[in-house]
Amino acid sequence: MNKEFEFIKIIKKTLENSKYIGDDCANLSKQNITISIDSLIEDVHFSRKYMTAEEIAKKALIVNISDILASGAKPKYALIALSGNLDKNFVQDFYKGINSVAKKYKVEIVGGDLTSGDKISISITAIGDSKKRRISSRKNAKEDYIVAVCGEFGSSAEGLECLEKNINNEYFIQKHKLPELFPKTSEAIAKKSKHPYAMMDSSDGLFDCLYQISKESNLKINIEYDKIPKKTKNKDFVIYGGEDYALVVAIHKDDFKKIKGLKQIGSCSSGQGVYIDEKKTEYKGFKHFE
């Protein structure tokens, strides 16, 4: 079993109340807020060989804003914990990057923490406004729902390979360093959907999204590979490559018709598992503890 899934299972059993655990965001419906936290560790999620302090900061905040958007909420606030062997120049450049992304997505930085450490570690708590929006859950997919996406797949993995192999391909490298988010599509889904829906971002890859939705909603998902938006020719990158932060949604067919920017790549039906072109495909996504 994937160790992350195993650990989450242990946490759910150990906590007296674990009803908010399972999705990338906790939806506190009575307060009209969603909350998410994500951590990025040097030499695991990023390398200072390939990215400046400003680029690291931009991606770190984008990652957390993406979780809020994938829930259907509107990103509003963030708190940032930064640790490592820091100096004035790194901190200044880091917060230049944070400020740039915060301004673009209209997010306020409302606090945080600074500590020392051997490697750079970034933990960001993002808070979103869910008022008058229908919020996603992985458990919401139903039979006959359409599986649709917004964004492309495999480009970030291709970009990382370019950096590691010193291949000069600016398009893919920028897709890895500065992923594109889709706030307008997220808002349209959350405000126009009349039925529950399941939506995730492809932080751990397209297959991971499909697997999680299939598992939590207890149904079969079949997609057509040729319909997946992509620029890379590497099929493994397209299916399993992470950090594209595209939106993946299982949505009622009537709601799908109302949303601009979504492309259908498959559908949900009775059964279990993820199928690509009618062939069952096994989990091979990013594993955080291996």
Outline the fold blueprint.
Elements (H helix, E strand, L loop, with lengths): L2 H12 L11 E3 L4 E9 L11 H19 L2 E10 L4 H17 L3 E8 L5 E9 L16 E5 L4 H10 L5 H8 L5 H10 L5 E4 L4 H12 L2 E4 L11 H6 L6 E5 L1 H4 L6 E7 L3 E4 L2 E3 L9
* Low-pLDDT residue intervals, each spanning 5 or more residues: none
Oligomeric organization of the protein chains: single chain
User: Can you count the beta strands?
Assistant: 12
Secondary-structure element pattern, one letter each: HEEHEHEEEHHHEHEHEHEEE
Biggest β-sheet strands, sense, barrel:
7 strands, mixed
Helix/strand/pairing class, anyone? Answer: alpha+beta
Please tell me the CATH architecture of the largest domain by its name: Alpha-Beta Complex
Please give the radius of gyration in angstroms: 18 Å
